[in-house]
Amino acid sequence: MSFKSVNDILGVLETQAKWQEQPFQRLLKCWPEVVGAVIAVHTQPLSIQRDVLRVATSSAAWAQNLTFERQRLVLKLNEKQSLGLVDIHFSTAGWQRPQKTHKTQETMSLREHPSYVGDEMKLPHDLTPTTGNANGAFQDWARTVQARSHGLPLCPQCHCPTPLGELQRWRVCSLCAAKQSSKIISAE
Question: Between vectors from CA 175 to CA 67 and to CA 59, what angle results, nearest 5°?
């Protein structure tokens, strides 16, 4: 019979525990890193069932916004943890307030929003108002929008000028992303 030190035995038990750690436990550890601090405050992963992650959100608005992001999040989670996730369902069902109260809540600045066009968009100086009536005001607005969207890339689906952040986030403009999401929800 060989005698092993307590530290050796604890070391073996610790490595065995890491091997046997369930996928959901691994996901909980990396969730804030993958989604970011702001989203982590408003979400709580609940379970993984049939390769679908269920996540509770603090409000319906968070659930809707994150539904647009679910494909990107599935890719990031699968890259990080090799979980084999197929989809993520966001819902307010199961939401419980966190025990910690956050005094300073991080907010997204306008520059971080995917629809942000940018300060660098210089408008031509010849966009001075033409007339004081409603039709003239509409014409001025239309010229301003056209000048501002002139250098933007086009959405691959509807071919409308689209801010680069929307294309990076959803691969389409926000309107096409909303249409895709509503088709998926109505099919369920």
Answer: 35
